[in-house]
Write a structure and sequence with these properties.
The chain is mostly beta strands and about 450 residues long. The chain has two helices and 30 strands. Strands 3-30-29-28 form a four-stranded antiparallel sheet, with no helix packed on it. The protein is globular, with a radius of gyration of 21 Å.
């Protein structure tokens, strides 16, 4: 470990802690909150897009870096590369790796695998160095790493257009289900193995099933004539898959569009057959960003809504965080909106040990209990199992600050990650353009 990171760890543990009291559901207070806000990066653009707890009590992050200086070591060029960073439960950086070629390559999702290693998904535009092949523009790029971050293998999936991976899971039998956007027009209708499905236009949900070596088992695409973007996936106890995102189509696989973009949820079988699809929203733009399971076999889905009608019971102004609980068969059980009169959005959700839910995203509101330091602030909030707001907290400076991932560790510390352009107020430093952002609340 470098001297810099040893010093940084001491800074985290002893200098960044502070006592703070903030409101919980307007009536309850939590005191002695230990928190730190830290940035990581170099002189160019750096961001964390995902975070997962690891079995050793620490956490792993995935994102991208354009820098080759500052905190980014052993990188020679200034193209965008995958950035993978492993931290202990005490926020000590244990290792950091970059992967990519000479073009634009960015990681969007990561999971720890059954063997203790990691699988990473994103997209690659490169055709050299670590990227062995590219069919044109962007391809899904799937990496398998050891527990120490060494590359075991990499696989590309795509056609001549912009095909980009957004989320992945390791399946219960040890393979991988990866999802993202397929540029159906550019693929000339390819992407559905053993299928002669009617060609759609634009981008569709693309689901790809591989074995544990990354070998393709099947692929299927789902959507309509316009744009579908999947951003979350999980596996059910029955080994089916649920994928969530947004759709503004009204044809082909989409049967009940509510107006403009909707939350679009599909359930597919273990072989990739469409079992059902559901749209939720109102007449304006509603976009789902993430999904997690509940302890009673249902699903919590988060995103944002600009609607005030149909499935949306309330909107506080501009965009609100929208939280849905949906049954395993796609029935809407309840929905909640959280926000002020400006733009408040959710980008990630994860379940906590007490069966509540952490949500991360960003906020521009200055009312309804929201604070704002300028532009978009990083936002973390917690709801209970019924969707009631327990607490919310914003962090930021005078520039743009976002959170894209959030998780509770084994020791109940909350880690959220994203990116920041600020260098004041809550943000201690900016090393150049955007930096990767890490926030802990305990």
């Amino acid at each position: 470990m470098t001297k810099y990171w040893q010093l940084l760890c001491l800074f985290f543990l002893f200098n960044c802690s502070k006592k703070e009291v903030f409101q919980i559901s307007d009536t309850t207070e939590i005191a002695d909150v230990l928190e730190f806000v830290e940035t990581l990066g170099g002189s160019k653009n750096d961001a964390f897009n995902a975070v997962k707890a690891t079995t050793d009590g620490g956490y792993i992050t995935a994102g991208y870096t354009q820098s080759n200086n500052g905190d980014i070591l052993e990188k020679t060029n200034t193209s965008f590369d995958f950035l993978i960073s492993k931290f202990s439960s005490k926020n000590i950086l244990e290792w950091q790796k970059t992967f990519g070629g000479s073009d634009d390559d960015r990681a969007t999702a990561i999971v720890q695998t059954l063997d203790g290693g990691f699988a990473v998904l994103g997209f690659a535009k490169s055709t050299d160095i670590a990227v062995s092949e590219n069919a044109g523009s962007k391809d899904f790029w799937l990496l398998k790493l050891t527990s120490n971050g060494n590359l075991l293998w990499e696989k590309s999936f795509g056609f001549s257009g912009a095909d980009y991976g957004t989320d992945l899971i390791e399946t219960k039998e040890g393979g991988f289900l990866i999802t993202g956007v397929l540029d159906v027009s550019a693929s000339d209708g390819q992407g559905s193995a053993k299928s002669t499905a009617t060609k759609h236009s634009g981008g569709d949900y693309w689901a790809i099933k591989t074995d544990n070596t990354g070998a393709l088992e099947w692929s299927r695409f789902f959507g309509g004539s316009f744009t579908e973007v999947p951003l979350g996936v999980l596996e059910t106890d029955a080994h089916n898959f649920v994928i969530v995102g947004s759709s503004d189509s009204k044809d082909f696989n989409i049967s009940n569009n509510k107006g403009s973009y909707d939350f679009w949820i599909i359930k597919i079988s273990t072989e990739g057959t469409l079992l059902w699809e559901k749209s939720f929203g109102g007449s304006e733009i509603d976009e789902a960003k993430a999904i997690t399971t509940t302890n009673d076999g249902n699903f919590i889905i988060v995103g944002d809504t600009r609607s005030t009608d149909k499935n949306v019971s309330k909107n506080n102004g501009a965009a609100d965080i929208w939280v849905l609980k949906v049954s395993e068969e796609g029935t809407l059980l309840w929905e909640k909106t959280i926000g002020g009169t400006n733009f408040d959005v959710a980008r990630a959700v994860s379940r906590t040990q007490d069966n509540g839910y952490l949500i991360s995203g960003s906020s521009r509101s200055l009312d309804n209990g929201f604070e704002n330091k300028g532009q978009n602030d990083a936002l973390i909030l917690k709801i209970d199992k019924n969707g009631n707001l327990l607490w919310k907290k914003t962090f930021g400076g005078s520039e743009i600050d976002f959170l894209y991932g959030v998780v509770e560790l084994e020791n109940t510390a909350i880690i959220a990650v994203g990116e920041s352009s600020s260098s004041d107020q809550d943000i201690p430093e900016n090393k150049g353009f955007t930096d990767a952002l890490i926030i802990q609340i305990k």
